[in-house]
Design brief:
Domain Response regulatory: 25-134
Strand content: 15-25%
Strand order of the largest sheet: 2-1-3-6-7
Keywords: Phosphoprotein
Number of helices: 5
Protein name: Response regulator
Modified residues (4-aspartylphosphate): 75
Radius of gyration: 14 Å
Order of helices and strands: HEHEHEEEHEEH
Largest sheet: 5 strands, parallel
Low-confidence stretches: 1-18
Mean pLDDT: 84
Shape: globular
Distance between the termini: 46 Å
Helix content: 25-40%
InterPro entries: CheY-like_superfamily (IPR011006), Sig_transdc_resp-reg_receiver (IPR001789)
Amino acid sequence: MWRGYSWRQCVTVTNVDNGGLAGKRILVAEDEYNIAMFLVEYLQMKDVDVVGPAGNLKALDALLDAQAVDGALLDINLGGELVYPLADRLRDGNIPFVLTSGYDDNVPERFADAPRCGKPYRLEALTHALEQALQARHVPGSS
């Protein structure tokens, strides 16, 4: 259960297509086991190479040290631990991410422009936000 919901109530699946995520390596930061496993399964159906999931900063840093990623889904609150140090690291590495939260979090000013998706979320909205973040990734040397 997640804040009074089962994982099946937290997400809605309608139509799965592979869109712009196929072949991408996506880091998943999620501390709720059922939600994490469902996200992994969903992303794998979209031909995503999932890195993780992990539910704490130490494990996420280790994953990022060991594997290159194209983007990330970051739950803001990982069991009381805020994900912002990892988001800083991703931003410094020009790696796009989407912040997710089951709360009305006030994000630090430096992340005011970061894409966010509230929980319970629709997978279509989450997928769209992640695809948009990946497409908007700044490529050095481009305008």
